[in-house]
């Protein structure tokens, strides 16, 4: 080995020793402070399991934003923060209440003189514009929607019945017919008897679900469904066996008229339509407590406690997403509770409405008292109790996403993981889009947009993500514990100034 190589190796060894000594010193100093005011500083596996079991219990019904279950979860977290001695963040309260807007389709139907066709019973409404009061319209036959067919009829402000080869084509046809001034279209696929049933079963949840947004926002259904044009005719789909009831002419006779180019011989049908869109106000809240430091600067540790609620009678427990992060937040709060002479305020933030578009985090930074210049960093914990396909069966890892935005973060994470055998940081997703960019899909992104250094702690997506099967029994609590402990080491290093 050359002298230069020997010198280089020695420098690497000295650097490792210094990093380890700094971490040991910071941990020792922190431990001394803790022992003077709080006897139990150990992050406890039994506590983590208790919190996860509570948050995923049937009584919380999946913690949907604005639901009774979400309110129960909020009360549980606030009670825990109070019991361990955190100070309320909001003028004597742990709650930051805020309101959201919930928009959804109400009564949607099409009526002829003798029959009412209800949404997701007899028809499928695939439209975008509301018609909150019943409107009288004329229904005309447009054949297969070719230029030659449409020259034979007047479509302006009418609903046009069209044949198509696939009911998927409603977006394209709603644009083209909208440009011609049609009010709406009704599509049937005469060549495939299963097309309607398949779409009915597949699309029900998408079109009927309630959509939550900020109060100031309008739900833009054009943008939501990636429709660029504003020239749209409202779309409806109908099964072949209901065509004659609606049009008063059989499917075969309609097809014959189309082939013979005699569309005008099919008499128009007077109909009534209603596409009711309703809007409710939802009340929800972030839960926030803090441990005071010796400066006006803060470290914000966050995790969202809401989830997807229930669909029909099936609960979505969200054990990993994100009971795991919320339980870790509470246990880390207890680990640091009672600490004196902290350099920074430690703020523990449990957000609501993350599943609806990071709305709780947005409400937190929009508060009049929030000052981004006084935030050292945000450490967000979201889904840290399971393993993804990249690491199974080995789970001794934790994704750390966001270090690319700060050179200091990489040093801190390396120092925190130094000498830890049970868990290490995986930085591979810092440069990977990973299913359309994971960093943009969790609460830390809201802080990042405020130019606050932000980190996302995460253990990856798995087969139970956003499914009723994301249950507590699938968590390896030994692995989960080691990840929470590692995050605790990170907090200690940042707080001590590393």
Describe this protein's structure.
It is a single chain. With 498 residues, this protein is of the alpha/beta class. The chain folds into two domains: 36-100 and 282-496, Aminopeptidase (3-Layer(aba) Sandwich); 103-279, Glucose Oxidase, domain 1. The protein has helices at 3-37, 45-55, 68-83, 147-150, 170-179, 195-208, 221-224, 243-247, 251-259, 319-336, 359-366, 407-417, 444-449, 477-496; strands at 87-88, 95-111, 116-118, 123-125, 131-141, 159-163, 184-188, 211-214, 234-238, 269-291, 298-304, 310-311, 314-315, 345-351, 375-381, 397-401, 424-426, 454-458. The chain has a 16-stranded mixed sheet that branches. Strands 12-13 form a two-stranded antiparallel ribbon. Helix 1 packs across helix 14, helix 2 (45-55) packs across helix 10 (319-336) and helix 10 (319-336) packs across helix 14 (477-496). The model is unreliable at 1-41 and 219-229 (pLDDT under 50).
CATH C-level class of the largest domain is Alpha Beta
Strand tally: 18
Q: Per DSSP, what share of the residues sits in E-state strands of 2 or more residues? A: 15-25%
> Could you please say which CATH topology of the largest domain applies here?
Aminopeptidase
Instruction: Report the major sheet.
Output: 16 strands, mixed
Shape: elongated
Q: What is the number of independent domains? A: 2
Task: State the gist of this model.
This protein is α/β, with parallel strands linked by helices and 498 residues long.
Keywords:
Aminopeptidase, alpha/beta, 498 residues, 16-stranded mixed sheet, disordered N terminus
């Amino acid at each position: 080995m050359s002298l230069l190589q020997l010198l280089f190796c020695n420098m690497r060894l000295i650097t490792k020793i210094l990093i380890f000594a700094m971490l040991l010193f910071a941990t020792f100093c922190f431990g001394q402070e803790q022992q003077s005011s709080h006897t139990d500083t150990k992050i406890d596996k039994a506590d983590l399991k208790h919190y996860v079991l509570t948050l995923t219990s049937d009584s919380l019904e999946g913690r949907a934003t604005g639901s009774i279950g979400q309110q129960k979860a909020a009360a549980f977290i606030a009670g825990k923060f109070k019991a361990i001695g955190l100070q309320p963040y909001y003028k004597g309260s742990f709650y930051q209440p805020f309101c959201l807007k919930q928009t959804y389709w109400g009564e949607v139907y099409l009526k002829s003189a003798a029959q009412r066709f209800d949404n997701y019973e007899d028809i499928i409404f695939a439209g975008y514009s509301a018609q909150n009061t019943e409107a009288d319209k004329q229904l005309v036959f447009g054949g297969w929607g070719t230029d030659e067919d449409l020259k034979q009829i007047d479509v302006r402000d009418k609903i046009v019945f069209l044949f198509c080869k696939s009911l998927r084509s409603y977006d394209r046809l709603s644009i083209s017919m909208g440009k011609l001034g049609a009010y709406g279209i009704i599509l049937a696929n005469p060549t495939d008897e299963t097309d309607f049933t398949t779409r009915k079963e597949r699309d029900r949840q998408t079109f009927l679900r309630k959509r939550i947004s900020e109060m100031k926002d309008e739900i833009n259904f054009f943008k939501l469904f990636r429709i660029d044009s504003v020239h749209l005719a409202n779309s409806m789909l109908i099964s072949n066996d209901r065509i004659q009831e609606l049009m008063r002419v059989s499917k075969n006779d309609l097809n014959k008229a189309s082939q013979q180019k005699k569309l005008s011989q099919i008499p128009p049908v007077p109909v009534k339509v209603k596409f009711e869109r309703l809007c409710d106000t939802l009340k929800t809240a972030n839960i926030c407590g803090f441990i005071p430091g010796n400066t006006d600067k803060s470290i914000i540790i966050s995790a969202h406690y809401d989830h997807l609620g229930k669909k029909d009678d099936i609960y979505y427990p969200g054990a990993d997403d994100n009971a795991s992060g919320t339980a870790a937040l509470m246990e880390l709060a207890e680990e640091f509770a009672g600490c004196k002479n902290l350099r920074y305020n430690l703020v523990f933030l449990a957000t609501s409405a993350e599943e609806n578009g990071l709305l709780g985090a947005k409400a937190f930074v929009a508060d009049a008292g929030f000052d981004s210049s006084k935030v050292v960093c945000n450490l967000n914990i979201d889904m840290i109790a399971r393993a993804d396909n990249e690491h199974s069966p080995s789970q001794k890892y934790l994704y750390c996403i966001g270090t690319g935005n700060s050179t200091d973060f990489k040093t801190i994470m390396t120092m925190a993981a130094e000498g830890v055998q049970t868990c290490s940081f995986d930085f591979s997703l810092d440069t990977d889009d990973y299913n359309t960019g994971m960093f943009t899909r969790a609460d830390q992104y809201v802080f990042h947009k405020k130019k606050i250094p932000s980190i996302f702690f995460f253990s990856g997506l798995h087969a139970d993500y956003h499914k009723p099967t994301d249950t507590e029994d699938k968590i390896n609590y030994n692995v989960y514990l080691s990840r929470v402990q590692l995050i605790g080491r990170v907090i200690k290093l940042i707080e001590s100034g590393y």
